[in-house]
């Protein structure tokens, strides 16, 4: 890697983008104009957006007017509003425009219409937003009630009540209801107070103390930080992505389209130099766009909000935190966009990828906006979400809390950046991507090709198809209506169906249709004899560590919610009640065979064609993890899947993995059954007390067993490995490259 | 200078399955010589030259340019060559001067040497009036000149032209052919691919006739005429191509597992 070349490419790309009017408009001019324009139109709109009064029809209040013994409901005079004393802020009574339904017949001699029915139809027609129907006899009943209390007699039941008529189908009607309801409540409260007074009880008796409130934010500079701490990180992330996307498309897909990419590729610049130069350009644009947006939004906001005292301006420290966060965010999005853009054949195709990218990013950005999302270890581990939550904490001024999770968020973000950059570099190294030709979409042709060009073992894409089919079927199983699991039999049937229909069936179909050598695909070869006991021993030795990891995940990382715990406890009770052999068969034996054939057989064999052993192992383990329904299980399964995948690669056989899986799952069942410790009390010394999440091994046993496990893994690593053609090819190229007389 | 041995390239193609773009071809080109690859469209010329320029990797076989291996030392290979093809365009938003300067710098040329060479090249190719013109505003001929200047700015020992005259008018094409001849006279090893017989006849010291992924005949013009007993190059070309076409069709009719190696080992 020569930095001079990277700098050259960076300088050229920057100048190139600066000369492109469309890109510059999208990422520089638009944001600068957008917010002032938006702000201005908000001001313009404000006059229309003012709170409009609701129109309310009131019936049956004739008897209330002018009555001294009951609190006033309507304002005296025209009766066009409610009494201001019924509102928290007296002038809020202007938000309810009252029309009193005339109680006289509209024409002499005509029968009086039922006021309730009339009110109902008028609200239905939309003539009024809501109506309040007061029974005409209500005032007299209330007075009778009070007299009874005054006289110390038993109070009669009232039987009549005022009623609010509204429609939830209409937003205006809902608002009217929300305004009307507290008014009538307050009036009833006032009536109650007069009743208490009549009985000689002080009015405060019903409400002896009032609640006081104090806003600590009011004393510090972070007043109003809540909105900004939510809004600014989202603006930052979205614009950082937009700012990366358009230049990336122009820099990769655009160059392909215009034919200049091949010119550059045949120059002495290395692929890594080209990628880095382009990545830095995209990053700079991403950062520039986000910064311009934030500055423009901040300035507009500051100008606008200085006229609205109820909102606060963004805190000035925000600039520092947002600036710091911008660098990794830009690197992450830059690399992602670059890889996507490199894959696209034309700018048009590139534009199509914006939507999927947005769809993946949006939940990660929006999720932290929900009030329940807190910065904790679990959320810090989620890419993007961690950054948003961390920024929020910083903007709120909770520095200590932010500092605690800063290392985790940083590590996760850096890890994602590295992966994204490597992906981008790989796209540039792949000639299939660089010289992709447009092929017409023809399903029949494609299917014929898939069958015609079958190979002994599946391709990496076939592995993805297998994994995704399993996940989709699993999802369908999950949402399909099933009867509740009341007995172990129910569970056993469901588990069997899952294993056979969701995992085994697609696996067998794909194996026999997409490969010519099913035995080699599924690694059905018999391994060296010694690997069998070694795999069993490894499962035994690794179980304590896996168990410790499981407890850490369940208790520290992502504690399950109440419902989940209840479900798990129920499940455990079902297991404990069933005969041991049945539980072992369903939980250990069947999955050990079906899941191993799928994930270590077909999927791992397919991914081996990627040419990298570890990548194949990790990808197959991720699919294995995802196929578990519960998040906590998925994490553990991914970790265990890596170990089993390693066994499968090192032994070139499915059987050690099957045994490992069998022993591992059996141990899980055995150690969580109470009778085991009861029968063999000596085990308590190794297992420790059964905790909430089942027994945890004593730490010394965890450590000792882990050492044994490492030793066994070391032994497995010494076995001669059967490499795939792609792996051999990659090694061969690396060998020539190392041996060659490279001059620089 | 250029030695290719058993150079092979396969693609996966939706319609044809495994498609062999070039099939174990051998050839050697020397300095001070123009080596012509003559063949109809789709013969495998571009794939061959893309492998030589390290933009593509061969599926099998080796090629060395000036002693460097295309697979193992791609960046050294790229320093030995100037590559120009119908697919290597000029940047729209760069002026002629900037474009040539950029590639000179990518080649790591010292600034003073670069400046001096650029002045000479711009004068020789009569490009001084388009110095500050953006690529988007250039005519095809102007772009072609910039491409040549870009390809030879670092004075490479090997220059590769892939269908370089495609789409050019007679005047521009002629000027380009003169430049190619000039390069040969300066002792460069020039590889020149074309599907136009007249160009090959006029320019090339050695010719390889390609069709359907194979080299059908190779040698100097006189050698080819002698070997095949045909004085007219066009007639000779036509005969060879038709023979290969027949053979290719026979191969296609064979069931799977025929002469084209199928599947994984």
Radius of gyration of chain B: 19 Å
Second-tier CATH architecture of chain B: 3-Layer(aba) Sandwich
SSE-based structural type of chain A: mainly alpha
What's the helix-strand series of chain B? EEEHEEHEHHHEHEHEEHH
Assembly classification: heterodimer
Based on secondary structure, the structural category of chain B is: alpha/beta
**What number of domains of chain B?**
1
End-to-end distance of chain B, in Å?
Answer: 34 Å
Estimate the global geometry of chain B from the Cα principal axes.
Answer: globular
Distance between the termini of chain A: 10 Å
Q: What share of the residues of chain B lie within helices?
A: 25-40%
DSSP E strands of chain B, number: 10
Percentage beta strand of chain A: under 5%
Most extensive protein-chain contact, per-chain counts: A-B, 43 and 42 residues
User: What's the rounded overall pLDDT mean of chain B?
Assistant: 87
Question: What is the structure about, briefly put?
Answer:
The complex is a heterodimer of chains A (744) and B (265). Chain A is mainly α.
Task: Give me the secondary-structure topology.
The complex is a heterodimer of chains A (744) and B (265).
Chain A: H1 3-18, H2 21-49, E1 54-59, E2 96-100, H3 115-125, E3 130-133, H4 138-151, E4 163-165, H5 171-198, H6 225-258, H7 260-265, H8 271-305, H9 318-343, H10 347-352, H11 354-366, H12 377-380, H13 385-396, H14 399-429, H15 431-434, H16 443-452, H17 460-479, H18 488-514, H19 518-521, H20 531-557, H21 562-577, H22 580-607, H23 613-626, H24 631-651, H25 655-671, H26 674-679, H27 684-687, E5 690-691, E6 694-695, H28 699-717, H29 725-739
Parallel strand pairs in A: 1-2, 1-3
Antiparallel strand pairs in A: 3-4, 5-6
Helix pairs in contact in A: 1-8, 2-8, 4-5, 6-8, 6-9, 6-11, 6-13, 8-9, 8-14, 9-13, 9-14, 13-14, 17-18, 17-22, 18-22, 20-24, 20-25, 20-28, 22-23, 22-24, 22-25, 23-24, 24-25
Chain B: E1 2-13, E2 17-29, E3 33-38, H1 45-52, E4 60-65, E5 68-69, H2 74-80, E6 81-85, H3 96-106, H4 111-124, H5 140-152, E7 158-162, H6 170-185, E8 189-194, H7 197-203, E9 206-211, E10 214-219, H8 221-228, H9 233-253
Helix pairs in contact in B: 3-4, 3-5
